[in-house]
Amino acid sequence: LTDRPASKAFRTADRASAVILLQAITISTTLLHLKRILKERICAIEIIEYWRTSLANSSGCKKIAIRS
């Protein structure tokens, strides 16, 4: 019985780290994409539009990660 709370805490920590990892990957890929956009000198509206869609996608990932 004493092992159960510990294993539950570990599982929660694993889930939290998985979400953090997902966020880190999303942020890094977004930054890489933004660098590419800036190099190509595409207008700011397209950058804002991409940022909006990437934020929507990352929040979706978070919901899935927390649910599972």
How would you explain this protein's 3D organization?
There is one protein chain. This protein has 68 residues and is mainly alpha-helical. It has one domain. The protein is built from two helices and no strands. The protein is elongated and about 55 Å long. The two termini are 25 Å apart. The relative contact order is 0.13. The mean pLDDT is 73. Keywords: Membrane, Transmembrane, Transmembrane helix. This is IS5/IS1182 family transposase.
Task: Fill in the keyword field for this structure.
0% strand; elongated; transmembrane; mainly alpha; membrane; 68 residues; 91% helix
Question: What spatial form do the alpha-carbon principal axes imply?
Answer: elongated
Amount of helix:
over 70%
Order of helices and strands: HH
Radius of gyration: 17 Å
Which structural class do you get from the secondary structure elements? mainly alpha
According to DSSP, the number of beta strands is 0
Query: Total helix count?
Result: 2
Write down the overall mean pLDDT: 73
- Percentage of β-strand residues: under 5%
- Main sheet record: none
Distance between the termini: 25 Å
User: How many structural units, i.e. domains?
Assistant: 1
Task: Report the uncertain regions.
Answer: none
Protein topology:
Elements: H1 3-40, H2 44-67
Helix pairs in contact: 1-2
What is this entry, summarized?
With 68 residues, the protein is mainly α. 91% of the residues lie in helices and 0% in strands. It contains two helices and no strands.
